[in-house]
Amino acid sequence: MSDMISLELDGIEKAYNKGTDKEVAVLRGASVAIKAGEAVALVAPSGTGKSTLLHIAGLLDTADAGAVRIGGEEMTGLSDRRRTGVRRRDVGFVYQFHHLLPEFTAEENIVLPQLAEGVAQSVAAGHARALMESVGVGGRADHRPAALSGGEQQRVAFCRALANRPRVLLADEPTGNLDPETSDTVFEAMMTLVRETGLAALIATHNMELAARMDRVLRLQDGRIVCD
User: Fold this and answer.
1) Is residue 153 part of a domain?
2) Which residue range or ranges hold the ABC transporter domain (predicted)?
3) Model confidence over 83-130: pLDDT tens digits?
4) Which of 32, 52, 147, 159 could disulfide-link to 143, CB 3.0 to 4.6 Å?
5) Considering the domain boundaries, does residue 110 fall inside one?
């Protein structure tokens, strides 16, 4: 694990229906710093702001106050175009459902984000296959998502998230739709990718057993992040 901070959230605040009598404050100064190669679990009941925090960290949403820094660079105030570029290049997302494109093979799903960044087809395909081999689904490269098991689909989704070699991985209940045995397999694959690539990973989960196997466990409580 490096000492370099890859993702920093500093005093993040977010409210919905702001300025009305129905205003709901979801985040009230949430702060966390995650080092390269570190996997951090974020646990909290549903509806308490986990997804909102991940969306702000991944530049899919904006905070009312506070700062987001990726690789030490301040993200606040960037134009939409620059935010999109940073998000596409430096942030990988994985959700509870894989969201793979059904008309493309597993390999093609991992190649496509690379092509969008200008990577040559042959280079992109080689990188896709290397990622798939590293998580044990190399033999499924030519299969479309419907022909893959749930665990295989999710491992391919992790590979796609890492296709452009991001600094940060954000995962929202990535094993929540899997049985315990498959969940464990996917978790191990995820941790392999984090360690091998030096990612900073922030992973929201309800699975306390998996959370305990990460480097740190944080809780979102009353809109703030506290150590477990």
Assistant:
1) no
2) 7-226
3) 888 888 899 998 877 889 999 999 999 999 999 999 999 999 999 999
4) 147
5) no
Question: Starting from the edge strand earliest in sequence, which strands make up the sheet with 5-16, in order?
Answer: 24-35, 5-16, 65-70, 73-74
Round to whole Å and give the CA distance between 200 and 104. 29
Given this model, what pLDDT does residue 88 score?
Answer: 86
Residue tagged 């699975």 (tokens): 207
**Residue 228 pLDDT level (bands cut at 50, 70, 90):** low
- The whole-angstrom separation of Cα 3 and Cα 114 is 28
- At 126 the pLDDT is 96
Cα gap 15→98, rounded to integer Å: 29
Give residue 1's pLDDT. 60
Domain total in the chain: 1
Could you tell me the two tokens for 171? 């995962």
The span from the CA of 190 to the CA of 47, in Å, is 25
**Can you give the residue range of the structural domain that contains 41?**
5-99+168-227
Residue 180 located in a structural domain: yes
Q: How far apart are the first and last CA of the chain?
A: 20
- pLDDT band at 2, cuts 50/70/90? low
* 112 domain-assigned: no
One-letter identity of residue 115:
L
**Average pLDDT over every residue of 27-34:** 94
Q: How many CB atoms lie within 10 A of CB 22?
A: 8
Structure tokens at 117: 């960044």
Q: And the tokens for 153?
A: 């689909």
CATH of the domain at 209: 3.40.50.300
